[in-house]
């Protein structure tokens, strides 16, 4: 058994001496071969500390680091084997052994060619040690960046900012992530949350105190439950056995019941392949979208869209999540209820609620627990990405206290029907029908007292019936707000720049209204009129852009370039007069009767 570490553990400066129990001894080894291997690992690690190893600087560090991690894993494994017969309230039973693999090798599962210095993965035991040379990003518990000197720390931070984005993009049940930087002998732990990357103080592996601190970290990661490691335990990957039997995800959604029912909330299990919408950014809401079915035999015939998101919310919801005035779940439920009671509409132009809500009472603070309390009390080294004028993304750091830590609530909602993106449309005539349906849904929202505020090509979907007829769906209430709610609840700009209203781009003090959303519809019609509605038309447009040197005069490109102010100024100029609008935008519409009809709709 491993005792819970206390804040005073780790020794004082006077205790920085070699300890045979720390490095040279060991538990009751299962056999002589394991004992000899671990004694060799200890000797190689000491050789690294004493500078006796040869080879490239980074590579001579990777292997000793992996050996040290494996040696600690053997101790952890011995504790796991003990079975907890002497368990007390002050003891924690390890759940896993951590091993380092992929030493300077590109992991599989990513479209990037980046080579990682090392990956830490969780294993049930150490029997796989020595055979872990091709781990997948899907298996990574933590990523490691190694540099030969301490003055390359910021370079290591830059790499971690790049590497860890892949963890979120590939591990679709990851809430937050861990990383390590090792520069010469100085090791730091990095915690990646939705809003920050925070680094620990330096642990000098050249001292007994530093090694002891690192061991405590490894043991802690071996003992944490899955949630504290950053995994969502209600989204589980089930590996397949081959192309004929691919893996799938199981996803639990809360089955919401009215309070009058007096019944406890139940969960519904959905089955899905990898999500169509993945978390592509290191920071933010980490929105994911699964196409799923309640029937495991119909995992490839989904009928439900599941949206999983870590929403930022108002301070008023910190102690009472149900009071959040921007609760997307509550808004979708209200719209679904209203549409169900409306006898005029049997085919609503809006995705309706099935299951979901506050998946559990789960927030950033609830998941991170004591880790977050320590960060808020002691302050931390915050790693912030910044984009220089030239060159790749760089990192800067600042010692600061994060109090209060940005507050987010984990929400999941299951909705139907399933729609397809606008690129599946076959003609501008179909686009006109879909836009009309979407804005009919917009009117329904207004009747419910909800303003959408994010009309874009990504939030309007297409449903095609067996006869080939299309209808439109308006989705995504992430940016929606109750009509009449004070602006200070969500003062930031919302939306996708090419489709944002001028007032929104300028962050005007004028209250947002439905006119801003209608302005966004105008921009969608112009955007698709120029760049093509169907996928075929879009491909042809791209070829024309590549071949036509005069395309530089098409002003529409300025709607997606530069700052918010630049885009607002461009739209001001293009909408200043009918002549300007025709010369800068309309004349660039694609040819064809359908596009002529779209052009007439835009001009009015």
Could you characterize the architecture of this molecule?
InterPro entries: Kinase-like_dom_sf, Pkinase_fungal, Tyr_kinase_AS. Residues 136-528 form the Fungal-type protein kinase domain. Residues 1-33 are annotated as: Disordered. With 604 residues, the chain is α+β, with helices and mostly antiparallel strands. The termini are far apart. The protein has 16 helices and 22 strands. The relative contact order is 0.07. The strands form 5 sheets. Strands 3, 4, 5, 6, 7, 8, 9, 16 and 17 form a 9-stranded mixed sheet that branches. A 7-stranded antiparallel sheet has the order 10-11-12-13-14-18-15.
Compact description:
This is Fungal-type protein kinase domain-containing protein. With 604 residues, the protein is of the alpha+beta class.
């Amino acid at each position: 058994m491993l005792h819970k570490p206390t804040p005073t553990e780790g020794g004082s400066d006077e205790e920085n001496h070699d300890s045979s129990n720390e490095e040279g001894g060991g538990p009751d080894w299962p056999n002589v071969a394991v004992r000899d291997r671990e004694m060799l690992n200890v000797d190689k690690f000491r050789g690294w500390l004493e500078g006796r190893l040869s080879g490239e600087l980074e590579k001579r560090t990777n292997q000793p680091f992996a050996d040290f991690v494996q040696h600690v894993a053997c101790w952890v494994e011995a504790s796991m084997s003990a079975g907890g017969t002497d368990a007390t309230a002050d003891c924690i039973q390890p759940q896993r052994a951590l091993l380092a693999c992929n030493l300077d090798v590109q992991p599989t599962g990513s479209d990037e060619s980046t080579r990682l210095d090392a990956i830490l993965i969780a294993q049930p035991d150490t029997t796989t040690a020595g055979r872990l040379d091709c781990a997948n990003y899907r298996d990574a518990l933590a990523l490691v960046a190694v540099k030969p000197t301490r003055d390359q720390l910021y370079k290591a931070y830059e790499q971690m900012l790049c590497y860890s984005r892949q963890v979120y993009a590939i591990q679709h049940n990851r809430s937050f992530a861990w990383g390590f930087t090792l520069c010469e002998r100085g090791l730091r732990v990095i915690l990646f949350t939705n809003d920050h990357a925070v680094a620990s103080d330096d642990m000098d592996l050249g001292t007994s105190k530093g090694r002891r601190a690192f061991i405590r970290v490894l043991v802690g990661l071996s003992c944490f439950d899955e949630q504290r490691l950053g995994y969502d335990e209600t989204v589980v990957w089930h590996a397949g056995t081959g192309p004929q039997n691919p893996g799938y995800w199981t996803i639990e959604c809360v089955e919401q019941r009215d309070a009058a029912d007096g019944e406890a909330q139940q969960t519904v299990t959905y089955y899905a392949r990898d999500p169509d919408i993945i978390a592509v950014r290191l920071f933010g809401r980490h929105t994911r979208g699964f196409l799923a079915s309640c029937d495991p035999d119909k995992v490839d015939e989904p009928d439900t869209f599941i949206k999983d998101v870590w929403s930022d919310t108002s301070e008023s919801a910190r102690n009472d999540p149900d009071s959040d005035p921007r609760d997307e779940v509550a808004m979708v439920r209200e719209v679904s209820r209203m549409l169900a009671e409306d006898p005029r509409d049997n085919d609503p132009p809006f995705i309706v609620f099935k299951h979901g809500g506050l998946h559990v009472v789960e927030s950033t603070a609830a998941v991170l627990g004591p880790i977050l309390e320590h960060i808020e009390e002691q302050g931390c080294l915050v790693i912030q990405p910044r984009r220089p004028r030239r060159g790749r993304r760089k990192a800067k750091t600042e010692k600061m206290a994060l109090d209060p830590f940005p507050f987010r609530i984990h929400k999941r909602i299951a909705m139907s029907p399933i729609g397809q993106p606008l690129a599946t449309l076959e003609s501008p005539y179909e686009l006109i029908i879909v836009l009309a349906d979407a804005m009919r849904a917009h009117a329904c929202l207004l009747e419910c007292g909800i303003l959408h505020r994010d009309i874009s090509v990504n939030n309007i979907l297409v449903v095609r019936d067996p006869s080939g007829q299309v209808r439109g769906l308006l989705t995504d209430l992430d940016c929606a707000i109750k009509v009449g709610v004070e602006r200070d609840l969500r003062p930031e700009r919302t939306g996708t720049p090419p489709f944002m209203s001028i007032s929104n781009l300028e962050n005007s003090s004028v209250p947002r209204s439905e006119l801003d959303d209608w302005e966004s519809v105008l921009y969608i019609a112009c955007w698709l009129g120029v760049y093509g509605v169907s996928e075929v038309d879009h491909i042809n447009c791209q070829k024309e852009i590549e071949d036509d040197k005069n395309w530089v005069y098409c002003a529409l490109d300025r709607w997606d370039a530069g700052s918010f102010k630049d885009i607002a100024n461009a739209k001001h100029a293009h909408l200043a007069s009918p002549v300007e609008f025709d010369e800068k935008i309309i004349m660039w519409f694609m040819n064809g009767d359908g596009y002529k009809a779209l052009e007439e709709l835009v001009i009015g």
